[in-house]
Structure formats: C-alpha cells, structure tokens
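User: Show me sequence and structure for the first protein, then do the same for the second.

Assistant: Starting with the first protein.
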Amino acid sequence: MTDTILITGTSSGYGKAIAEHFLNEGWHVIATMRRPQAAAFEAETSRLRVLPLDVTDANSIASLIKAAGPIDVLVNNAGIGAVGAFEATPMALVRQLFETNTIGVMAMCQAVIPQMRTRRAGTIVNVTSSVTLGAFPLAAAYTASKQAIEGFTGSLAHELAHFGIRAKLVEPGYAPTTRFGANAIMPVDQLIPETYAAFAHPIMEAFAAPTLTTQESDVAEAVWNAVHDTGGQLRFPAGHDARALAGAY
C-alpha cells in the first residue's frame, strides 16, 4: 500500500516542492492551501488531492481531517513572515505570526495524532527556519514563533515515541526564490522606521545578495530524509546556509 502524506502551505515555494517530490516518488499526496489550485502542480495523477485549509481556523482543520482520511505523514509547512525592527512591529502582527507559525502547527498536530496513535505509526515533520540556528537581526517576532515549534517538537518527539510516532524538524535556510517576502504580513519598509535605517541598510543589502542560499529542492530532500530516518535524528537543516549555521553551534 502506498503511503499518504499531507502537506500544509503547498501553493508555492517549499510546500509545493515537497509535494512534487513525494508525488515523483509514488506517494499519495494531500496538498493543502487556503485557496486550492490544482493547476499549481505540473503532475496530473490520481495520487494528488488538493484540499482547502486555513491552519488558524478550527472548523477548517476539522473539515480537512474528515476529508483526508488516513494520514501516514503530516508536514507542517504553512507559515507567514515578518522582517523589521521589533520596536515597530505591532502586537497584532506578532499575534498573527504566532497564530499561523506556532498555534497552527500545534493544532494540526493535535488533529492528526489520535489516528496515528491508534495505528501506533506515523511521522510528523514540522518545518521551521534557519533563524532557529543563529541570532538574526530584524526577525525577532518571526524567530520567536519558529523557536517555539523547535521546543514543542523536541518534547513531542519523546511523548509520541511511546506510541510508535516520530516527530521531526526541518530547518530551511534562506531562499530568495521563494514567496517568503510575498507571504510577509506587512511590507518591510513599514517595519523599519527611520531611526533604524542606518542599522538595517547593510543587513537588507546582505539579504539581497546572499553568499549561501537554500533551494526548494534542498527542503524537499530534507523532508524526505526526515520521513525515512530511523536513527532518532530530530533536526534536519536544509540548504547550504542552514547546514553551515548548524555546524557552527
């Protein structure tokens, strides 16, 4: 029997790449996004289902779980970004970050764990970020939302192992080709006041011309490795920059 993987946030970027990688390997894939677009995927196969999901909406999660059926692997990839000075970051924006990047991940885990526990099998992969591997300026709130999932997943891995369920972390680096900027809640220029301009300018220039980056395929491969790992490894840095950071600590 072919395994089924459910991936959140698959309209573009890492999520889409993960979905296509597993499709190419013969898996059944449930690709979720807030506004489903089957045309977003090149593959035309009965092994692909595209379903609606808003990870911040309990009713949306419940409807998805009912429609999805048995899930062997859950990949929590959906996320939103924010870059800017924390002083200028509205608390409403901070709450939005945590609702999607943190609470949304936890809610999806809680929704899927019961069926995995009953079968005493399954894997949960939570996608965080390389900001958890080093201290990055102008990303305080975003980092906090991702760091929370790092601690959450480490603890979850211990308690779920008793039931034969594995929990893993994939930590992607910076990929200029993804839609991270497009997924930002507010434009960067609104979150960097004039008082921070001299500090922020060289940082933003470095982001515009990075020396080490991550490809979407790096993240898809890291998720694949995490799903198939049987050695107890928790963290899977993805991309040259993420692996360099992981090796420095």
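Switching to the second protein now.
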Amino acid sequence: MAVVVGVDAGGTASKAVVVDGSGTVLGRGAAGPGNPSAGGPPAARAVGSALRSALAGLDPATVTAGVVGVAGASALADPAVAAAFAEEWVSIGLRCEIPIVGDAVTAFAAGGDWSTGAVLISGTGAVAALVDGLCTVRVADGLGWLLGDEGSGMWLGLQAVRHAVRTFSSPLAREVAAHAGAATPDDLVHWAGTLPPFGAVAPLVCELADAGDPDAASIVTEAAARLIATLDELESPHAPVVLAGGLLVAGTPVRRAVLTRLTARGTAVGTATDPALGAARLALRR
C-alpha cells in the first residue's frame, strides 16, 4: 500500500502524519522542536523522530511522496542543515524526494482546498504570506518581536507590560505584575530587562479582554488591526485567507476580532487546525 507523509516542524514541536491515497490517517508521531533556524542541524533529528513514530508498523519504502513544513525554511540554505535532513531521510529508509517548504505553505493547505491564497499566522510571532502551490509568493512581517511580529503573542504580552508599568494600579497591571512577581513598577522594569518570554503574558490579556477589561480589550483590538494591516501588505484583497497559529486557531478574542473584519469584507476564511495533515494533503496533490 502506497502512503504519503506530512510534517509540521515548528519551534516548539514537530508533528508528523501518514495517510493513504484516500487521505485516511494511518499514523501520527510527535517529537521536539524542528525549527532549523533555531536548532541548526539537530532539528533534523527531531523531524526524523516524529516521522519514525508516525511510520511505526509501516514499511518506509511504501512512502511515495512527502512534504515537510518548517519554521525557518531558509536555514536549508546552510549545507550542514540540508545534509542533516538528507541523511535523516536515508536513515529512516525513505526512497522518495521530500520537499521542505515554509510552514506558511503547509498551514495554508491545512485550511482548505484552495491552491492559491493567503495565510495569516499569529502565534508567538506573526506573519502573512501569499501562497501558490508549494511556493510562497510574497511575505509580510515575520520580522521577529524586536522589529515586527505585530499582533502576535509576543506583541500582545509586550504591550501589556508597557501598559502595566505606566498604570500600575489598573486590573491589567496587577495581573501582569503578579505574573512577573513584581511588587513595584521598578521591579517590573527590571523583569522586562531580562527579556523574558513576553508571549506568556498573552493569555492574561485574552482572558481579561473576554472578561470585559477595557485596557486588555484595547490591546486585542489593536492586535487585530495590525494583523489585518499585515495581511493587506500582500496586496491580494480577493484571495481566500487561512488563519493559523495559536491566537487565530483557538477561540481567542484576537481570532474573533480578525474574523469580524474579514467577514465584513466578504473574504472566504479557513482555519489551519492540523498543518501536518495539510503537508500530507500537499504530498497527495504531488
């Protein structure tokens, strides 16, 4: 029986899926971070581990196609990284070509049956991309939290901390200070200076926004506006849009605000609930 594989390899985890020719899932596997930009050549081992788990009980020689979506696909330009992935495929026993594409491509495929359109991702970071098949045609933002990623979890958290240090008595500030273990504004400044994972504050912002806190709601509204502005940089107003990333897949106020704006435009919208399966769908199309 011929099968295909799909992998979604991100900065937190790598997830793999095996499907048959009809699209039925035959196996799944997971492993550690597979982002080669952050992890270098060792990221290939995490991707390989996820694939081995997904292929348990199946003959790797029956794999006829596959697609791997990775955060940081540009790292494949490094010969050491490319060699590490090629060696991993051989060690698993794969005999077919396994294209490695950006995770925006597989996220888009996970959101619907469109072959061309846009994907808007907001998780730890934020990026929008125009996708055509296996190719990313145009990209907006994705610049990292110091320079961009506007509307991302990192952005939400950072805005909350900035608000908290200026209005230390507000409900939002109290929640942020408790998260940081800060008793005074100076403590919060010191905590921020250690460059903590600001994205961990984002759930607090979303919870307070849902509870009606005006400061948190204002940050969420601005996040949605910035995400839509990033999407508009693609200059493809009639394209279907797939929403991806934790803030836009889960039932967050950010997702609801973005959906409201897209629905008002009459935009066709999908949600990337399973990028690994999206990668497998691309493999089936190939």
